[in-house]
Amino acid sequence: MERLQKMLAHAGVASRRKSEQLILDGKVKVNGKVVKELGTKVSSTDTVEVDGVKLEKEQKVYHLLYKPRGIISAVTDDKGRKTVADLFPHIQERLFPVGRLDYETSGLLIMTNDGDLSFTLTHPKFKIDKTYVARVKGIPGKEQLRILERGVDLEDGKTAPARVKLLSADPKQGGKAIIEITIHEGKNRQVRRMFDAIGFPVQKLKRERFAFLGLHGLNAGESRELTSHEVKLLRVMADTGKIGS
After folding, report:
1. According to DSSP H, which parts of the chain are helical?
2. Where are the alpha helices (DSSP H) in 43-141?
3. How confident is the model over 21-57, as pLDDT tens digits?
4. Inter-axis angle of helices 228-240 and 115-122, nearest 10
């Protein structure tokens, strides 16, 4: 027996938090009856429906995607734009992204149907590193970079301390710089807003790493299945915030 919201998350319906909201909204039935209690427990023999659709248990799948620019980090888009789900036509299971990269940002994105793992990987309390490389307009000085390192005041709160490294600087035509920045939060368009706040807008942005995972061997638009060991390490990080030995 397991809690209904956990079962929904494990089945890839949504993250655990969103699964809880589906239950509270009366969109989930167990054995033909609407259930709105979050503590409800179900077994493998129970029939579960979400929005009138019977839940079929899926095998868990995990993929690492090199998301190109100009792709939406979503399963569907009401404007008809191409989504990351469209890059997996050969996968029968319903995949969704772990967190998001904005439309113009490229880089590493985990795709899975494991809602429970997705929820814990994106929860800020575990402080899982995400490393980006940004090309910015202008060349920040040491003091501006220290502001990023200490945390930037944004409209939705101050960012946590970041690790920042100036990779290169080109003074031609007004100047531009390539900067590596590592954060563990996931505020909306956070990296872009951090650089805007210090006066150096991002011209191009790419996520290079998520935790211990990188993009080695992949071109934009390509993906690979995560190994069982990589999935195990992600689970350890989701549970403890650390990589086990």
Report:
1. 4-10, 16-24, 115-122, 142-150, 190-197, 228-240
2. 115-122
3. 999 999 999 999 999 999 899 887 889 999 998 887 7
4. 50
190 contacts 183 by C-beta, under 8 angstroms: yes
Q: What is the pLDDT of residue 245?
A: 44
Give the model's confidence band at 6: pLDDT under 50 very low, under 70 low, under 90 confident, else very high: confident
Which domains are seen in the chain, by residue range?
2-54 (3.10.290.10), 62-124+212-240 (3.30.70.580), 129-210 (3.30.70.1560)
- Catalytic residue set: 102
Q: Tell me which amino acid residue 165 is.
A: K
What burial class does residue 235 get, using C-beta atoms within 10 Å of its C-beta: 0-12 exposed, 13-18 middle, 19+ buried? middle
pTM here is: 0.79
Examine the pLDDT at 244 and tell me if it is beyond 60.
no
Query: Nearest 5°: CA angle at 159, between 166 and 64?
Result: 70
